[in-house]
Predict the structure of unspecific monooxygenase.
Amino acid sequence: MRPTVVLHGYEAVKEALIDQGEEFSGRGSFPVFEKAMTPSLGIIFSNGKTWKEIRRFSLMTLRNFGMGKRSIEDRVQEEACSVVEELRKTKASPCDPTFVLGCAPCNVICSIIFQNHFDYKDQDFLNLMKRLNENISIASSPWIQICNTFPLLIDYFPGSHKKLLNNVAYLKNYTLEKIKEHQESLDINNPRDFIDCFLIKMSQEKHNKQSEFTIENLTITISDLFGAGTETTSTTLRYGLLLLMKYPEVTAKVQEEIDCVVGKHRNPCLQDRDSMPYMDAVVHEIQRYIDLLPTNLPHAVTQDIKFRNYLIPKGTTIITSLTSVLHNKKEFPNPETFDPGHFLDDSGKFKKSDYFMPFSAGKRICVGEGLARMELFLFLTNILQKFTLKPLIDPKDIKITPVNNGLASVLPPYQLCFIPV
C-alpha cells in the first residue's frame, strides 16, 4: 500500500502533465505488466534515459516513415480498402465487426514494424490478434485491478493474469523470430521497416557500452507499439460504429458531407479532413465520449516536487483522471451526451479544444497519436462512404454503456448489417 496522488479536473492535469511535464514524466507502478515485460525497457513502462532515447527514436522513425517508397498514409489507405472488401463479403447479413476492425490497425502496425501485410485468414496473424484482444479484456477486468493493488497475488494465485503473461511471452517470441529474419537479410542502405531502422541504429552504436539500442529493448519496444497501437484503435472504431447506429441523424449528416467533399468514386485521403469539419468533429466526439483510458496509465514524479502546496516525494505514483477532463461540463455542455457540436463553432467550422486529451498530454503523450488519428479518420470515412449501417434493433434500444471499465472502457458486443450504398 503506497501513497498515490490523484489529479482530477483539467487545471490540475494540465498543471502537472504540461506545465511541469518533466517532473511528472515518470511511469508509475503497474505490477501485472511489470511482471510480463522488462519494465526498464521499451517506451511504455521505461523511465529516464532509456525512455527518452527509445521514445525519440520511435517518434522519428514513425514520422520519417518513407521506408520503401510508401508513406504511412499509403499503408492506411490500402488497409481501408481491405476493410471495405471484407465488409462487402458479409453480403449485408448481420455480423460482428470486431474481427475486421481488429485486423485493420493490427495490419498497419505489422506493415510498419515487419513490412508484412497479412491476409485476414493467415494463421500467424489470427494468433496475434486473438492474444492482443484477450489482453485488453483481461487488463480491464476487476481481477487485474486487484492484482495491481496486491501484487503478491500475481505469483501465488491462479487467474486470468496467467493468460495475460503467456500472451505477452508469445508476442515476444514471435517478435524475436522476426528480428532474426531481419538480421539475416538486412541492407543498411535500404531499411524496409521499423526493425531494420533499429538494427541499423544498433550497428552505429555497437562501440557504445551504455547504448540503449539492444535486441531486448527492440523486442519490448515492438510489444509496446503493438499493445498500444492495435486494440486501442480497433476498440475506438467499434465504439464509433455503435454510436453512429445509435444516432442515425449524425450518420446521415456525415454521409452528406462525404458525398459533397469526396463523392462516390474516389477513396478518401487525409487531405480531405480539412474540408470535412463535421466528420472531424464526429471522430473527436467519439474519442471524447467513450473515454477509452479513464485513468490514463500511471505517471510518477521524477524528483521531490512542491505541487499546490503539497510536497510530493520522488517516485510517488500519480493517477490522472482523463474522464474529469474529457467530461468537463464547462468545456463540453452535457458531457454525458454524444454530440459532435462539442467540436464545432457557431458557423459549423471545426473547433479545437485543450480539453481533448484521449492520448494523454505532455511528455508521455501517446507516441502513435498521429497514426491513430489518421486511421480513425480514414477507416470511418471509407466505411461510411461505401455502406449504410443497419442495426438489428431500434436505435433507441442500443446500449452504449461500457461493460467493463478498468484499464480501458470495454464496449458491449453487438452485430449490424453493412448495406452497400
Notes: Residues 160-185 form the longest helix (26 residues). The mean pLDDT is 91. Residues 265 and 385 are 9 Å apart (CA to CA). The longest strand covers residues 387-391.
